[in-house]
Design goal:
It contains five helices and 16 strands. About 20% of the residues lie in helices and about 25% in strands.
Length: about 240
C-alpha cells in the first residue's frame, strides 16, 4: 500500500489502515477497480516476535500490517495487542462494533498464555497469582495458573514449543487472565520473582490458534465467527 498502488476515489493512499466506505468510495489497485465486500472480514494471525501490534509506526519499525492482506481488506486492524517480543494469536477484523465489544472491560474474555520463566514458582507463588497480585496500577483479578511439566495434548505440545524447552532452571507456566493491563502477564510473573523469558498466547476468548504457521494468517471459519458474535451478545 505504501508503494502507491492503491487509490481511493482517484487519490493515492499510502497510509496503512486507511478507512474507506465500501458504499461510497471507489478503490483501485494498480488502476483496476477493487470491489469491496460488504461483509466484515475476520482473520487470525500467528504473530511472530519482532513486530509491533499496530498498523503503522512513526519510527519505521516492523508492524503486523506487513503480515496481513491490507490491500485486499482495506480497514483491517488488530483487536488488542501483543508485545513486540510476544508471539501467538492476534485477531484482525474490519468489524469495528465487534472489536469495540471485545475490548470493552465488561467483556471478560479469557486469554491464555504460556510463559517460560526464570526459576520455578513455588506453590505459594502460584497461589498468589491465583488470588491476584499488587501491581503499580492496582491489584490484578484472580487468574488461573498451573506449572506445566508435561503437555496435556498434542495441541498443547505444539503450543509449548513456541516458548522453547524449560531447561537450565527455567520452567513453563500457563496463565489465564481476563483483564488487559499493559504487560500484565510479564508484570504478574515478575511480581512473584520469576521474570518472563518467552511468552506465547494460544487463545483469545473462544478462539484457538490452530491450523496456521508462525508469521501466517487464516480467515476465521463461519463457526468461529458465530461463536465470537454469540460471546459479545452475552455482555
Amino acid at each position: 500500500m505504501t508503494e502507491g498502488r492503491v487509490k481511493v476515489n482517484g487519490q493515492v493512499v499510502r497510509e496503512l489502515g486507511s478507512k474507506v466506505d465500501p458504499k461510497e468510495d471507489v478503490v483501485t489497485i494498480d488502476d483496476k477497480e477493487f470491489t469491496l465486500n460488504d461483509a466484515p472480514t475476520y482473520l487470525m494471525l500467528y504473530k511472530p516476535a519482532g513486530y509491533l501490534s499496530t498498523m503503522r509506526d512513526p519510527h519505521n519499525r516492523k508492524t503486523v500490517a506487513e503480515l496481513v492482506s491490507i490491500s485486499q481488506h482495506p480497514g483491517l486492524f488488530p483487536v488488542g495487542r501483543l508485545d513486540a517480543d510476544t508471539t501467538g494469536l492476534l485477531l484482525f477484523t474490519t468489524d469495528g462494533d465487534l472489536a469495540q465489544r471485545l475490548l470493552h472491560p465488561s467483556f471478560e474474555k479469557e486469554k491464555s498464555y504460556f510463559a517460560r520463566v526464570k526459576g520455578t514458582p513455588t506453590q505459594e507463588e502460584l497461589a498468589a497469582l491465583k488470588k491476584g497480585v499488587a501491581l503499580e496500577d492496582g491489584m490484578t483479578a484472580p487468574a488461573k495458573v498451573r506449572l506445566v511439566k508435561t503437555p496435556s495434548s498434542e495441541k498443547e505440545s505444539a503450543w509449548l514449543a513456541a516458548v522453547g524447552p524449560a531447561k537450565g532452571g527455567d520452567s513453563i507456566v500457563e496463565l489465564v487472565i481476563h483483564e488487559g493491563k499493559k504487560h500484565q502477564v510479564k508484570r504478574m510473573l515478575e511480581a512473584v520473582g520469576h521474570p518472563v523469558l518467552a511468552l506465547f498466547r494460544p487463545t483469545f476468548g473462544p478462539l484457538e490458534l490452530t491450523n496456521i504457521e508462525e508469521g501466517k494468517w487464516r480467515y476465521l471459519s463461519s463457526e468461529e465467527i458465530d461463536t465470537l458474535r454469540e460471546e459479545v451478545k452475552r455482555q
